[in-house]
Amino acid sequence: MWSEKYRPKTIGGMVGNEEARLKLVSWLEKWKPGARAALLVGPPGTGKTTLVHLLAARSGLNLVELNASDARTKEKLSRRIGEVLTSTSLMGERTLVFLDEVDGLSGRNDYGAVEFIKDSIKKSENPIVMAANDPDADQVKKLGEASLILRIRPPPPREVQLYLRMIADKEGLKVDDRTLGETVTAAAGDIRYAVNALQSGAAGVKDVEATAAQAINAFFDAPDGATALKALRSHPGQPRDKIRDLLGSVLKARLDGSDRAKALEVLSRADMLVGRMTRGQDWRLLRYFDSTIAYGIKGALPGERLAYSQDFLPWPLQLRVWNDSKKVKELAAALGPRLSVSQKGHLVEDFPYLMLLCSSKKFRDELARLLDLEEPMVTFLAKESGRWKA
Amino acid sequence: MEGLKIVVGNRFNLPRLGTDVFSALMKAGVDYEKGGGFIFTAETNLQTATRTIESATGERIELSVKCFVCLKESCPSCPFEATCDRCAVSPTCLCDEHSAAEDAFGMYSRNFEARLAE
């Protein structure tokens, strides 16, 4: 995949957030025990994790990484990173401690997670970098008191275009500025999306579909897991495309209920793997993806002859679903904390009722004022609530 | 509504708008220097800051950013001028010359590395 092939190898190989990148490097170069931590604040997918990985590589530091929402209390944090904060290696080498998603720490004072980190920043023998999505979260404000706060934003479209042009040139791809510009605009600052779109465009959708069908058919025809694995690796798409193609085929096939459940279980595990991979930017997990599916499906459906079936939404509709779901998630991220429920909880429990309430313009306006919503979001609410009402 | 142009990284002056507005701007990360005026930086919450100024002055803010390589203002002739949300994206970009140059990405990266070495 080009998004992996052209993943920046150095901090200078990234685009966007130039000042923040320069300041972060300078912060680490000047860092001494007891100095401030660094706190990167910005929306998901803007390169915070990549930046920290490249920073550690540039400085020759080991990197210890923890997703703070997996260790939300003082006790858990202390158990996971207590030792690394207060020690250096025998050779005196330092470690860069990276706490991701600190806005996911428990907000309750009695759990003490935020105070533990603030205290650790003062005592730590190793530099600490934190990352958060929500600049207005209480945890971010408190940790910001002891940190150099750096805002990380999506790169401007022209810099995304610059990146795509560099890839196109290296791949010998002839693409005009207009097409490149359309890809950049559709990506809305998401470089990974832009690079994937460029690659899909380069492959030509028709060819991709034909090859995907061949790969999936070869996968189902394979007599064993090893052959199936080889077939799956020949699939031209990305992990989610493979899941989508297999899901369509499994759903369309005439299968016994329990066999179908077993196959769907395998695809579900693979989907969770992709989720973990993208959330944690842990692309090493990619190596387990194909084998999880190949051996899983072959084990679940021995001897079953399935065939490729493109039983999925057309691309324009998928794009709409993708765009709308981004807005729904944004809304849930803003409303969930105010209602003291998780983002997911809000989506599952409250969202249908919210949509019904939003069919009233008065309610919508009040919500927009309360959450400081932008015009596109208000328009989305009006449209979406109209559909729910209907 | 009149327009007021603000270039991120350049100082600008505002009429006296009262302590509440001043305090809101400081909270949004706007820098101020007596005699020099206000300045939007990379740490400024551009959305909040522009909204605060717009509602206090009644003027529409036209936000513009500079080229990272040559520090010239880069927005006016940009092909993405109409679609770029300048309050949301990172506040430096590239001008026509430095985005269209041969090996533009290499030039951009080398420039970054040079600044890093300073």
Description:
The complex is a heterodimer of chains A (390) and B (118). Chain A is an alpha/beta fold. Chain A contains 18 helices and five strands. In chain A, strands 2-3-4-1-5 form a five-stranded parallel sheet, with helices on both faces. In chain A, α17 (361-371) runs antiparallel to α18. The longest helix of chain A has 24 residues, at 315-338. The two termini of chain A are 42 Å apart. Chain B contains four helices and seven strands. The longest helix of chain B has 14 residues, at 104-117. Chain B starts with a strand and ends with a helix. The mean pLDDT of chain B is 92. At the A-B interface, α2, β5, α7 and α8 of A face β7 and α4 of B.
Number of strands of chain A: 5
Which sheet architecture does the biggest sheet of chain A show?
5 strands, parallel
Q: Give the class of chain B from helix and strand content and strand pairing.
A: alpha/beta
Biggest interface and residues each: A-B, 35 and 31 residues
Overall mean confidence score, pLDDT of chain B: 92
Strand proportion of chain B: 15-25%
**Helix count, DSSP H or I runs of 4 or more residues of chain A:** 18
Task: Give the beta-strand count of chain B.
Answer: 7
What's the CATH first level of the largest domain in chain A? Answer: Alpha Beta
N-to-C terminal Cα separation of chain A, in Å? 42 Å
Helix content of chain B: 25-40%
CATH topology annotation of the largest domain in chain A: Rossmann fold
Number of helices of chain B: 4
Q: What sort of overall outline of chain B do the alpha carbons produce when their principal axes are compared?
A: elongated
CATH A-level architecture of the largest domain in chain A: 3-Layer(aba) Sandwich
Helix/strand order of chain A: HHEHEHEHEHEHHHHHHHHHHHH
Radius of gyration of chain B: 16 Å
Q: Name the CATH homologous superfamily of the largest domain in chain A.
A: P-loop containing nucleotide triphosphate hydrolases
The end-to-end span of chain B amounts to: 43 Å
